[in-house]
Write a structure and sequence with these properties.
The protein is mainly alpha-helical and about 240 residues long. Helices cover about 60% and strands about 0% of the residues. Helix 1 packs antiparallel against helix 5, helix 3 packs antiparallel against helix 5 and helix 3 packs across helix 6. The chain starts with 15 loop residues before the first helix and ends in an 8-residue tail after the last helix.
Amino acid sequence: MPIKDWFKKSKLHNNSIYSLGEEIARNYLTKNLTNFSSHVDEQTLELIWNQMKEMIISISSQDNNLMQTSMLRKHISETTNIRAEYEILLLNQNNDLNNWTKEKGISGELHKHLHQIYMANTLLDQTSNKDNRSSNEILSLIRLGMYTASWYNEVLNGLRSPLKDFQGTKDWYNSFLCSCLIVQEDKYRKSINLDTLIERQELIDAYNTFKKFVIDCHSDPFHAWEIKHSKLLKDGDISLPS
Protein backbone atom coordinates (compact mmCIF):
# COMPACT_ATOMS: atom_id res chain seq x y z
CA MET A 1 0.00 0.00 0.00
CA PRO A 2 1.42 3.42 -0.94
CA ILE A 3 2.38 5.58 2.02
CA LYS A 4 -0.14 8.27 1.06
CA ASP A 5 -2.94 5.71 1.56
CA TRP A 6 -1.99 5.07 5.20
CA PHE A 7 -3.76 8.27 6.14
CA LYS A 8 -7.04 7.21 4.53
CA LYS A 9 -7.70 4.34 6.92
CA SER A 10 -9.66 4.62 10.19
CA LYS A 11 -10.29 8.33 9.83
CA LEU A 12 -12.39 9.95 12.53
CA HIS A 13 -14.96 12.05 10.70
CA ASN A 14 -15.95 15.40 12.21
CA ASN A 15 -13.09 15.25 14.72
CA SER A 16 -10.94 18.36 14.29
CA ILE A 17 -8.19 17.25 16.68
CA TYR A 18 -7.70 13.94 14.90
CA SER A 19 -7.83 15.57 11.47
CA LEU A 20 -5.18 18.10 12.47
CA GLY A 21 -2.96 15.41 14.00
CA GLU A 22 -3.21 13.34 10.84
CA GLU A 23 -2.39 16.34 8.66
CA ILE A 24 0.69 17.26 10.71
CA ALA A 25 1.86 13.63 10.76
CA ARG A 26 1.45 13.27 7.01
CA ASN A 27 3.26 16.53 6.25
CA TYR A 28 6.14 15.71 8.61
CA LEU A 29 6.57 12.26 7.10
CA THR A 30 6.51 13.66 3.57
CA LYS A 31 9.27 16.15 4.41
CA ASN A 32 11.40 13.59 6.26
CA LEU A 33 10.73 10.42 4.29
CA THR A 34 14.30 10.27 2.98
CA ASN A 35 15.67 10.39 6.53
CA PHE A 36 13.34 7.62 7.68
CA SER A 37 13.91 5.44 4.60
CA SER A 38 17.65 5.41 5.27
CA HIS A 39 17.06 3.56 8.53
CA VAL A 40 13.79 1.62 8.33
CA ASP A 41 11.54 -0.14 5.82
CA GLU A 42 8.01 0.99 4.94
CA GLN A 43 6.37 -1.78 6.97
CA THR A 44 8.03 -0.60 10.16
CA LEU A 45 7.29 3.02 9.29
CA GLU A 46 3.62 2.20 8.87
CA LEU A 47 3.67 0.47 12.27
CA ILE A 48 5.07 3.65 13.82
CA TRP A 49 2.27 5.66 12.20
CA ASN A 50 -0.39 3.21 13.41
CA GLN A 51 0.89 3.54 16.98
CA MET A 52 0.87 7.33 16.67
CA LYS A 53 -2.64 7.22 15.20
CA GLU A 54 -3.92 5.31 18.23
CA MET A 55 -2.33 7.91 20.48
CA ILE A 56 -4.03 10.75 18.60
CA ILE A 57 -7.36 8.91 18.76
CA SER A 58 -6.98 8.36 22.51
CA ILE A 59 -6.43 12.11 23.00
CA SER A 60 -9.21 13.28 20.68
CA SER A 61 -11.71 10.79 22.14
CA GLN A 62 -11.52 12.17 25.70
CA ASP A 63 -14.72 13.69 27.04
CA ASN A 64 -13.61 17.30 27.45
CA ASN A 65 -10.82 19.80 26.81
CA LEU A 66 -9.28 19.36 30.25
CA MET A 67 -8.97 15.59 29.88
CA GLN A 68 -7.65 15.94 26.32
CA THR A 69 -5.00 18.42 27.44
CA SER A 70 -4.01 16.24 30.39
CA MET A 71 -3.46 13.21 28.17
CA LEU A 72 -1.69 15.33 25.56
CA ARG A 73 0.75 16.73 28.14
CA LYS A 74 1.48 13.22 29.42
CA HIS A 75 2.38 12.08 25.91
CA ILE A 76 4.49 15.19 25.31
CA SER A 77 6.45 14.50 28.48
CA GLU A 78 7.08 10.87 27.58
CA THR A 79 8.06 11.41 23.96
CA THR A 80 10.25 14.44 24.70
CA ASN A 81 12.21 12.39 27.19
CA ILE A 82 12.66 9.67 24.56
CA ARG A 83 13.68 12.25 21.97
CA ALA A 84 16.31 13.61 24.36
CA GLU A 85 17.71 10.12 24.93
CA TYR A 86 18.60 9.93 21.24
CA GLU A 87 19.18 13.57 20.31
CA ILE A 88 21.85 14.18 22.95
CA LEU A 89 23.88 11.31 21.47
CA LEU A 90 23.87 12.86 17.98
CA LEU A 91 24.46 16.46 19.04
CA ASN A 92 27.68 18.12 17.90
CA GLN A 93 28.94 21.57 16.95
CA ASN A 94 27.94 21.07 13.31
CA ASN A 95 24.25 20.29 13.92
CA ASP A 96 23.61 22.43 17.02
CA LEU A 97 20.95 24.65 15.46
CA ASN A 98 19.43 25.52 18.87
CA ASN A 99 22.78 26.36 20.49
CA TRP A 100 22.22 23.68 23.10
CA THR A 101 25.96 23.38 23.77
CA LYS A 102 25.94 26.89 25.24
CA GLU A 103 23.81 25.57 28.08
CA LYS A 104 25.24 24.16 31.28
CA GLY A 105 25.32 20.38 31.22
CA ILE A 106 25.36 19.90 27.43
CA SER A 107 28.68 19.15 25.78
CA GLY A 108 27.81 18.07 22.25
CA GLU A 109 30.52 15.43 22.61
CA LEU A 110 28.68 12.26 23.61
CA HIS A 111 28.76 11.09 19.99
CA LYS A 112 32.45 10.34 20.54
CA HIS A 113 31.42 7.65 23.05
CA LEU A 114 28.42 6.34 21.14
CA HIS A 115 29.26 2.63 21.10
CA GLN A 116 30.19 2.57 24.80
CA ILE A 117 27.02 4.41 25.79
CA TYR A 118 24.90 2.16 23.59
CA MET A 119 26.28 -0.97 25.24
CA ALA A 120 25.76 0.44 28.75
CA ASN A 121 22.15 1.58 28.32
CA THR A 122 19.48 -1.04 27.65
CA LEU A 123 16.80 1.54 26.85
CA LEU A 124 18.49 2.28 23.54
CA ASP A 125 18.12 -1.31 22.35
CA GLN A 126 16.46 -4.19 24.19
CA THR A 127 16.96 -6.85 21.51
CA SER A 128 18.95 -10.04 22.01
CA ASN A 129 21.19 -9.05 19.10
CA LYS A 130 22.62 -6.02 20.87
CA ASP A 131 26.17 -7.36 21.26
CA ASN A 132 26.47 -8.00 17.52
CA ARG A 133 25.53 -4.51 16.32
CA SER A 134 28.07 -2.73 14.15
CA SER A 135 28.87 0.95 14.69
CA ASN A 136 26.83 1.84 11.60
CA GLU A 137 23.86 -0.20 12.82
CA ILE A 138 24.00 1.50 16.21
CA LEU A 139 24.12 4.93 14.59
CA SER A 140 21.17 4.01 12.36
CA LEU A 141 19.09 2.85 15.34
CA ILE A 142 19.79 6.03 17.26
CA ARG A 143 18.96 8.25 14.29
CA LEU A 144 15.72 6.36 13.72
CA GLY A 145 14.84 6.80 17.39
CA MET A 146 15.41 10.55 17.17
CA TYR A 147 13.45 10.93 13.92
CA THR A 148 10.55 8.91 15.34
CA ALA A 149 10.38 10.80 18.64
CA SER A 150 10.65 14.12 16.79
CA TRP A 151 7.76 13.04 14.55
CA TYR A 152 5.63 12.35 17.63
CA ASN A 153 6.62 15.68 19.16
CA GLU A 154 5.78 17.60 15.99
CA VAL A 155 2.28 16.14 16.04
CA LEU A 156 1.72 16.51 19.78
CA ASN A 157 2.86 20.12 19.91
CA GLY A 158 0.62 20.87 16.95
CA LEU A 159 -2.37 19.48 18.85
CA ARG A 160 -1.82 22.03 21.60
CA SER A 161 -3.20 24.72 19.28
CA PRO A 162 -6.86 23.56 19.03
CA LEU A 163 -6.78 22.84 22.76
CA LYS A 164 -5.52 26.40 23.38
CA ASP A 165 -2.66 25.05 25.44
CA PHE A 166 -0.50 28.16 25.09
CA GLN A 167 0.41 31.02 27.38
CA GLY A 168 1.69 34.34 26.09
CA THR A 169 4.01 34.75 23.11
CA LYS A 170 6.86 32.50 24.32
CA ASP A 171 6.49 28.75 24.34
CA TRP A 172 7.89 26.44 27.00
CA TYR A 173 8.61 23.39 24.82
CA ASN A 174 12.23 24.13 23.86
CA SER A 175 13.07 24.86 27.50
CA PHE A 176 11.55 21.54 28.45
CA LEU A 177 13.48 19.69 25.75
CA CYS A 178 16.67 21.39 26.92
CA SER A 179 16.08 20.24 30.51
CA CYS A 180 15.61 16.67 29.25
CA LEU A 181 18.84 16.86 27.23
CA ILE A 182 20.75 17.99 30.32
CA VAL A 183 19.32 15.17 32.44
CA GLN A 184 20.07 12.59 29.74
CA GLU A 185 23.65 13.76 29.25
CA ASP A 186 24.24 13.43 32.97
CA LYS A 187 22.73 9.92 32.95
CA TYR A 188 24.89 8.77 30.05
CA ARG A 189 28.07 10.24 31.51
CA LYS A 190 27.52 8.41 34.77
CA SER A 191 26.72 5.15 32.93
CA ILE A 192 30.23 5.03 31.39
CA ASN A 193 32.09 6.84 34.19
CA LEU A 194 32.77 10.07 32.32
CA ASP A 195 33.29 13.21 34.38
CA THR A 196 29.97 14.91 35.02
CA LEU A 197 29.36 18.44 33.82
CA ILE A 198 27.04 19.21 36.74
CA GLU A 199 28.47 17.79 39.94
CA ARG A 200 25.63 18.47 42.37
CA GLN A 201 22.77 15.99 42.12
CA GLU A 202 20.33 18.57 43.47
CA LEU A 203 20.87 20.60 40.29
CA ILE A 204 20.13 17.61 38.04
CA ASP A 205 17.06 16.97 40.17
CA ALA A 206 16.00 20.60 39.65
CA TYR A 207 16.16 20.23 35.86
CA ASN A 208 14.26 16.96 36.13
CA THR A 209 11.34 18.65 37.93
CA PHE A 210 10.36 20.49 34.73
CA LYS A 211 8.41 17.44 33.56
CA LYS A 212 6.17 17.60 36.63
CA PHE A 213 4.95 21.06 35.62
CA VAL A 214 4.29 19.76 32.10
CA ILE A 215 2.34 16.73 33.32
CA ASP A 216 0.43 18.80 35.89
CA CYS A 217 -0.82 21.02 33.04
CA HIS A 218 0.52 24.33 34.33
CA SER A 219 -0.42 26.99 31.80
CA ASP A 220 3.26 27.99 31.62
CA PRO A 221 5.50 25.14 32.90
CA PHE A 222 8.65 27.20 32.35
CA HIS A 223 7.41 30.02 34.59
CA ALA A 224 6.32 27.52 37.24
CA TRP A 225 9.77 25.91 37.07
CA GLU A 226 11.43 29.32 37.47
CA ILE A 227 9.39 30.08 40.59
CA LYS A 228 10.17 26.67 42.10
CA HIS A 229 13.93 27.12 41.64
CA SER A 230 14.25 30.90 41.91
CA LYS A 231 17.23 30.79 44.30
CA LEU A 232 19.24 28.36 42.17
CA LEU A 233 18.50 30.51 39.13
CA LYS A 234 19.43 33.73 40.93
CA ASP A 235 22.72 32.20 42.10
CA GLY A 236 23.50 31.06 38.55
CA ASP A 237 23.60 27.39 39.49
CA ILE A 238 21.04 26.42 36.82
CA SER A 239 19.64 28.01 33.70
CA LEU A 240 17.47 27.21 30.68
CA PRO A 241 16.75 29.14 27.48
CA SER A 242 13.43 30.97 27.72
